[in-house]
Write a structure and sequence with these properties.
about 20% strand, about 240 residues, binds flavin mononucleotide, globular, alpha+beta, seven-stranded antiparallel beta sheet, about 35% helix, 9 helices, NADH Oxidase
Amino acid sequence: MPSPWAFLPASIEAEQSNPSRPLGKSGEWAKYFASLSGNPRIQLPQGARTAITAASAVAASAARRTWRAFTRSHCGIEQLASVLSELTSGIDGLPDFHDVFAAHVIVLGVDGLSTGIYALDPATFSLVLVRAGDFTEQTCKLLRGLLAPKSAAFTLVLSADMAALPDVYHGQLGIREMYVHSGFATQKAIEASTVLGLGTLPTPAIPDTMTAELLGIDGVRQNPVYSLTVGTTDPVGAGAGQ
Ligand SMILES: Cc1cc2nc3c(=O)[nH]c(=O)nc-3n(C[C@H](O)[C@H](O)[C@H](O)COP(=O)(O)O)c2cc1C
């Protein structure tokens, strides 16, 4: 059976086989955020994390359905902050979220935020503007033609630092562990959204190149792996589970 590394881009594989290259978090995201240092940033409310208990998470998981359409009402910036806080918080037995992932937010309808694409800066829990504008149509394309972004509040995209995987996950199964980790982290964001009364549409089925171009990441070492579209929902349930 071929090594899992056989599926990594050639440039990364070559670097992994060079023993003189010091391992460690590869610094991809530090470089990326340095490149955005002159951009406008919005401080997210601190301490907005939803108090998700084990019981509320179980209840949220049981109640949760995938939503294909939302109400078009905006969500609040506090709700977005809570979801991001939960997304990026620690998971027992796994590396820190930010040792591997960066989170982008495509803002479609959030009170207190202009539409556009933002990157979550973990150092300050602030959103750094990557591109201003309405990216609803492009977000529908990212989701392979799903129309949910037209009525959603925001789409989150998780991207992985592929060069960091062997060090962060300590082994050849690192690439698999990264995908599993992205699912765990997104599940927490789904549960937080559900506890907050928001609906979610998860899908990792997003095209690498188009997504990377939209987010302004390189798409190879910085690789988009998962998306979560979140919106306000109709209490009578129209739009869920369709
Ligand atoms: C890992 C994962 C991948 C998914 N990928 C897609 C997808 O590519 N396209 C899509 O329309 N929905 C996708 N979804 C949403 C599922 O289709 C949806 O969860 C499924 O219909 C089950 O419905 P439920 O979430 O209401 O239980 C995905 C969900 C998960 C958890």
